[in-house]
Specification:
The protein is built from 2 helices and 4 strands, in the order βαβββα. The protein has 136 residues and is an alpha+beta fold. It has one domain. It has a two-stranded antiparallel ribbon with strand order 1-2. It is found in: Nucleus, Nucleoplasm. This is THAP-type domain-containing protein.
């Protein structure tokens, strides 16, 4: 199965380049490959298209499509170079921030808590006799 021709994408399969020359040029500009002329097997996978780029309802049937059918005017627009980082924090800083937040939710709940305030059980509520024969 052919691989996606978008740089740094390892997906297989996908959509063929359009036959319309103008639309094909827009696709080539979007995927940013220098001196690339797509052959008949060249594909762009579904990860590079928005959900709105697909037909929801079948043109002739009037019911919801079972397969993803790309709109004729769709242009790939989701790429790793377009994704903006959600935060400038490193993953380690994000974990530390989340841990401190969880600790702030329960301020008295730390690992050094003593058990001196726990009351012992009354002997009246505890049964010391276990009859093994009754359990079979």
């Amino acid at each position: 199965m052919p691989r996606c021709c978008v740089p740094n994408c390892v997906e297989t399969g996908g959509h063929q380049f359009p036959r319309d020359v103008k639309l094909k040029k827009l696709w080539l500009k979007a995927i940013r490959r220098l001196k690339f002329e797509p052959k008949s097997g060249a594909r762009v996978c579904h990860k590079h298209f928005k959900e709105s780029d697909y037909e929801k309802i079948g043109k002739y049937s009037g019911i919801e499509n079972q397969r993803k059918i790309l709109k004729k005017s769709a242009i790939p627009s989701i790429f790793s170079w377009n994704v903006k980082p959600t935060s400038s924090e490193t993953p380690r800083e994000q974990r530390l921030k989340a841990r401190n937040y969880r600790k702030s939710l329960f301020p008295g709940n730390d690992s050094t808590q003593s058990f001196s305030d726990i009351q012992p059980l009354d002997d009246a509520n505890v049964s010391h006799h276990v009859d093994i024969a009754d359990s079979f």
